[in-house]
């Protein structure tokens, strides 16, 4: 129960810190944007959020905060499969709590609901709901490849002989870079709990990502996590044999 609570809290902080920055602060100040974080700032916010969550809650639960990461760690033999369902539920619940808090805050502004379009309320999407108008195939490829690389980084920096204490910083840097690459493509998910956390509150709408696109942001990260775990296991075994 303590591990699940830590996963919920960590995912809550990741969604609130990352998506909250995108919703509340990315364009603060209007078109001239004198106060806004902008594209780079939101990318860094996601990295800082996951790094601080990992420092705070990682010692308790391992610091997954992402169903695709938990799945990939299980495939890689780093995480017991019997705990996978509970972790996924805890992560989704934590994300939804953050999404609910953000929705309560943002809808207090009567002007918010008059706007819409790709990426509104930090939603992910493809086609008309991609910030850059990228099609489903590109969105799937980007989410899968970037999740695979993310999983490889996580596995590398958490291996037994890795530098102690450096893992959260490396993972945070990797997530920030992933956002720098893919915000224009899908608004960046690589985390099904993060996507669900915001999509659940906008539902089916012509103004926001429709719920029927959410499947891609579960399937592609999980496919990527599977590929990343298998690639890492193959490369790691090759190194072990060479040594």
From TrEMBL:
UniProt KW keywords: Cell membrane, Membrane, Transmembrane, Transmembrane helix, Transport
Sequence similarity: Belongs to the MIP/aquaporin (TC 1.A.8) family.
Single GO cellular component term: plasma membrane
InterPro entries: Aquaporin-like, Aquaporin_transptr, MIP, MIP_CS
Primary localization class, coarse: membrane
Keyword Oxidoreductase: no
Membrane topology: Multi-pass membrane protein
Compartmental location: Cell membrane
Membrane-spanning parts: 35-57, 84-106, 138-157, 164-185, 215-235
Name of the protein in its database record: Porin
Source organism (scientific name): Stenotrophomonas panacihumi
PROSITE patterns: MIP, PROKAR_LIPOPROTEIN
Molecular function in Gene Ontology: water channel activity
Gene3D superfamilies: Glycerol uptake facilitator protein
NCBIfam families: PRK05420.1
């Amino acid at each position: 129960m303590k591990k699940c609570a830590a996963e919920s809290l960590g995912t809550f902080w990741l969604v609130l810190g990352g998506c909250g920055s995108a919703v509340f602060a990315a364009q603060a100040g209007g078109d001239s944007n004198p106060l806004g974080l902008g594209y780079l700032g939101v990318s860094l916010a996601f990295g800082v959020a996951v790094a601080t969550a990992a420092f705070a809650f990682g010692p308790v639960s391992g610091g997954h905060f992402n169903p695709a990461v938990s799945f990939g760690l299980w495939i890689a033999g780093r995480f017991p499969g019997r705990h996978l369902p509970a972790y996924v539920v805890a992560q989704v619940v934590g994300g939804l709590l953050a999404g609910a808090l953000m929705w309560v805050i943002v809808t207090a502004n009567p002007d918010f609901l008059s706007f819409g379009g790709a990426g509104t309320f930090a939603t992910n999407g493809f086609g008309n709901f991609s910030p850059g108008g990228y099609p489903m195939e590109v969105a799937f490829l980007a989410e899968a490849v970037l999740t695979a690389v993310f999983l490889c980084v996580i596995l590398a920096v958490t291996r037994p002989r890795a530098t102690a204490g450096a893992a959260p910083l490396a993972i945070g840097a990797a997530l920030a870079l992933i956002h720098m690459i893919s915000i224009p493509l899908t608004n960046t998910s690589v985390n099904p709990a993060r996507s669900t956390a915001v999509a659940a509150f906008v539902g089916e709408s012509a103004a926001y990502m429709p719920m029927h696109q959410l499947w891609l942001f579960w399937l592609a990260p999980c496919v990527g996590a599977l590929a990343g775990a298998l690639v890492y296991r193959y490369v790691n075994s090759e190194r072990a044999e060479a040594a």
